[in-house]
Amino acid sequence: MAWLLRSMFRESNALGMPGGAGLLPPDWLDPEMVAGAVRAVGRSVRGQLVSYGHPQGFAPLRQQIAAFLQNDGVPAHPERNLLTTNGVTHALDLIARHLVKSGDTVLVEDPAWFVIFGRLAAFGARLIGVPRGPDGPDTALLEQLAAEHKPKLFIVNSAVHNPTGHTLSAGAAYDILRIAERHDFLVVEDDTYGELHPGGAMKLAALDRLKRVILVGGYSKMLAASLRVGYLAANPEILQKLGDLKMLAGLTSPELGERVIHRVLMEGQYRRHIERVRLRVDDARQRCLKGLQKLGLKVHHEPHAGMFVWADYGRDTEALARLAADHGMLLAPGTLFSPSQAPSTMLRFSVTIADHRGVWADLEKIFAQNASSN
């Protein structure tokens, strides 16, 4: 896991795969819009940038986030329910630090975003995976595991799941909340890729009214990863404790980045920008699916949104990933996305490879070499 993270962040392009770090290419986004916001903030605030800022986050940005969430049915008040963070990873880290003690059971989806596995393990949590299908987690097994293990929380990627691209059905969403209430555990809803959904995705935080759901989201994927601006929404009691923990760990989150995001949102271009990005991602995903199928991979349930394709190679992909690394290509094998690190035949691909002819030729060669060596 650490090897993959180190490889993803190498400055050299010698080892890599387009979109390997879970980011879209700069030319798919709008760097000039972000740069313009940076310049505007620099001209307008000056002396205010040398202060710490508010520990809860830049107030005007929290007001904007609250308005967006309220439009989606989430009753988020900018003072009582919102805290800004240094991205979604920071938000999840704060939640884990506050809620998880050594020996606690935490339920996670399988497959799921692998970084959270490492963070929870560092706190001594016992991770148990709940299989994720196209409509959501296996709720019958979720009920069984909750009754048996008394989990502290369940972390779920509700809309545009990483790595499968699927979104919770209404039935699954209601079932998760009912099970959480029956067995008294909290639900952490990760909405990192939710803006790539075409609309109408059901938020657990909206159904639950922020009673036992903690919602996390951010702007790195759609605007600029370097800004590291995220947020969490929770009930007032939990939010106060998370805010105190944020101060103890680092006082505040950098206000400069939060002011830049606020400027982008204020200028009214963000929604149009999201729509442009979504359309480009959707087009690339269809081409990526066709390309992978031509190489002999199977996609059992095609995603309807998002920048990833979860494809079945038919044989162990950890060995394939090691072979690919020897040839200067970074692949994400399915074992990384399982909390048990079980052997897997799955691979996660970024749809951005659709625009890179050289990648397809390299994949074909590596697949052929791997097949001949087994």
Q: What does this molecule look like?
A:
This protein is an alpha/beta fold and 374 residues long. The chain has two domains: 1-30 and 271-372, Aspartate Aminotransferase, domain 1; 32-267, Aspartate Aminotransferase, domain 2. It contains 13 helices and eleven strands. The strands form two sheets. An eight-stranded mixed sheet has the order 1-8-7-6-5-2-3-4, with helices on both faces. Strands 9-11-10 form a three-stranded antiparallel sheet. α4 runs parallel beside α5 (115-122) and α4 (88-99) packs across α9. The longest helix has 25 residues, at 270-294. The radius of gyration is 21 Å and the shape is globular. The model is unreliable at 11-16 (pLDDT under 50). Keywords: Aminotransferase, Transferase. This is 2-aminoadipate transaminase. It comes from Achromobacter anxifer. Residues 44-351 form the Aminotransferase class I/classII large domain. Pfam families: Aminotran_1_2.
